[in-house]
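hey m, so remember when u said the tokens were messed up on ur end? i reran from scratch. heres the input so u can diff it against urs
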Amino acid sequence: MNIKKACKLLHVSRSGYYKYLHWTPPRRLIENEVYKDKIKAIFEANHGRYGTIRIQKSLEQEGIRVNRKRIGRLLHEMGLIAKGARYRYKHYNKKTDNNDIPNLLNQVFKSSSKNKIWVGDITYIPTQSKTLYLAVFIDIYSRKVVGWAMSTRMKSSLVVDAFLQGIGKEHPAEGLVVHTVHGSQFTGDLFTRVLKAHGAVHSESRKGNPYDNALMESFYRTIKRELIQDSVFQNPEQARSEIFKYIEIYYNIKRMHSALGYISPVQYEIKNS
């Protein structure tokens, strides 16, 4: 079939056909296709946990500068939606109460060096067979998870195990401030004795005030959004395995943290060592 007949059959003018043959796609269109490949690779490598900000920072680390709105538009075109949305804590009433254990932080989550201030808390992890409890301690300086433990029972030994793991890894000097929520696992005799034995000073949130330990609340919200809410753990063993990979392989080593200038906790410690 000659060109004339083909154009007639397809209801296309011959001038339009020849224009198509010599058409060169715009530079922006070509760039978008390249960016889509890069963005999709970053998105999938982080299991859908990175939104426009962290994808932008990842691209910048490769020497590629792309506007966040453009990244968002390309994500939308590919049907890629990051898990969850950012949430910012507002400061709460900072008046102190009459707790026996003082609140030494007063919602100021900053430290001049590593292993000066740790924060800790407990959350629960649902599985198909039984509920699992996760205790975590985080170093305020680098946002690194320094110690964690899991158990099917929420006892004082759970938080002690998590704390001692951090002690074994980090070897903090005497005077470490350990800030926790006001819970029996943290205020009981066992945890108190362990803190004293390692020269640590206990700081505590006021009752019913989650903002006093907002950094831990933020971490638990993140792990639940990025891992737990989309997972169905058949048993505690499977949950332990996935949480180990999330904390030790992903969160501490790889995941960008906005408060650290969009690098991971381990990268931050290396950069500032």
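this time it looks ok to me. The CA atoms of residues 84 and 204 lie 29 Å apart. if urs says something different then somethings off w ur setup not the seq
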